[in-house]
Amino acid sequence: MAIPYCKILQLCLGLSLIFHNFSLANPFIVDDHRQGHQNNNNLSTKLIRLTSPLFVFGDSLFDPGNNNYIDTNPNFWSNFLPYGETHFEIATGRFSNGRIIPDFIAKYANLPLIPPYFQSGYKQFSYGVNFASGGAGALVETHQGKVSCYRWQDVKDHLLFLRLDIDAVSRTILITSIICYFSIFNISSHVIIIRSLQAISLKEQMMYFKDVEKQLRKRIGDRETQELLSNAVYMFDIGVNDLSEPDPMYRNFTSQDYIDIIVANFTDVLKEVYKAGGRKFVLLNLLPLDCTPCARAQNNAEKLAELVNQFNEALSREFKKLEKQLNGFLYSEFDFFTAVNDRIQNPSRYGFKEVRNACCGSGIYRGNYSCGGKRDGECDYELCDNPQDYFFFDCHHPSEKAYEQIAELMWNGPPSMVGQYNLKSLFEIQSRELAL
C-alpha cells in the first residue's frame, strides 16, 4: 500500500519541525525572572538535586504549552493573544491570561517554572516536568484522532530524503502534526501506525513519564533516580473532558458505569507512578462545570452538575482505597468544587466583581469559546478591561487571579479543603520518611 503523497508531506514537515524545535529555543516559553524563577539552561551537563521535584499531569487547567507542539485543532490551542498577556505579555500556551496553578505551586515550593515536556532542549527533569495537554482525558478515546496504517519502508525512504536520523526517530514517540508509534510497528509486515492527534491523553502522558524515568536511570543511576522519584510530588487534574465530551462509543453506558471506567483508567496511571517510586500525590476534584459561562450559555448545567457530583464522589472513594492498598501512599485531595463554588456564591469576599460572565469570549455570558478569534471560524470576541475582576478568563478557564487563590489554598489549606495533606506538607516530607 503506497503512502499518499499529502500524508508523507505532512509527516515529513512535522518531523522536520520537531527536530528543528529540539535544536532551537522554544518561542512559547519565557524566562520568567519576574516571578523569581531561574532559567536552568546552564544545567545541560549536571543534575541539580532538589528536595521535591514536581511532575504534572492533566488537561487545559494545567497545560503550560505542550499543545503548542501538536497540530491539533484551534479549540485545543491557546498560543495566541489575549491568552498570557497579563503576566507573560505573550501567549505561552496556557489557557488563562497569565499563570496557572502549577506555576504558583512551583513558586511556593521554591522551584523554577516547571516546563512543558516538549520544551526545546529541556531534558534535565531534576525539577520535574509538566505533561498536561489541553483537551486531554483519562480515557484514550476522549478527543482521539484518526488512525491510518502505512508501510514503514515508504516512511523511511522519505525520512532519508530529508536526511533525518531514522534511528533516533524510530526510538522515540514523536508528537507533531501526527503521532507516530514507531515503537509498535510490525517488523514482519513493515507496517507503521500513524494517528492524528487532538490531545495527549493521560495514558500517553504516562508513557512520556516512563521515558523520563528511563532517561534518569541512564544518566544518574537507579539509586539516585529512585530517591528523586520518591521525593517528587505528582499533581493531577483530569476528567472534565471525559464528562463534557464523551466519545460516542460510550453512549449506551449508564452515567455511573461510564464514571467508573474513567476512574479506573485514572487509577491505573496512579498505580504506574507508584510502581515507579512515586509516593506523594495531589488531585483536584472537578469544579462545578454547571457554573462555567459555557455551561450557562449552552443551558446544559443540570446534567453536568449531576455528572460532576457522581465523579467527585467516586474519585474520593478510590483514593481512600488506594491509601489502604498501597504502602506509603500519601495524597492531597483538593476540593476544587467547593473552592470554586464558594467564590461564585460570594464573589466580593474574594475580590471578584464578575463570576457569571467570562472576561474573554462572545455571546451571552461571553459563553462562546471564541477568545482570541481563532476558534471554529469565530473571529469576533469581546475582551474585558480588567481581568482581575473576573473569576473566569474565557468560558472554560479561570483567570490568573482565580488560579492564584486556588493554588494558595492548595498550598496552605486546612484538612477540610485538602484532605490528608496540604501541598506544603507534602513537599516537606522526605523519602526517608516514606515506605518505599
Quick take:
This protein has 436 residues and is of the alpha/beta class.
- Percent of residues in helices comes to 25-40%
Order of helices and strands: HEHEEHHEEEHHEHHEHHEHEEHHH
> What is the class of the largest domain in the CATH system?
Alpha Beta
Spatial order of strands in the largest sheet? 2-1-7-8-9
Structural class, please? alpha/beta
Under the CATH scheme, the architecture of the largest domain is 3-Layer(aba) Sandwich
- Parts with pLDDT < 50 across at least 5 consecutive residues: 1-50, 163-189
Q: What's the CATH H-level superfamily name of the largest domain?
A: SGNH hydrolase
Distance N terminus to C terminus? 50 Å
Mean pLDDT: 82
Kindly give the count of domains.
2
Beta percentage is: 5-15%
Number of strands: 11
Structure explained in plain terms:
The protein is an alpha/beta fold and 436 residues long. It folds into two domains: 5-23 and 144-197, no CATH class; 33-140 and 202-433, Rossmann fold (3-Layer(aba) Sandwich). The chain has 14 helices and eleven strands. The strands form three sheets. The chain has a five-stranded parallel beta sheet with strand order 2-1-7-8-9. The radius of gyration is 21 Å and the shape is globular.
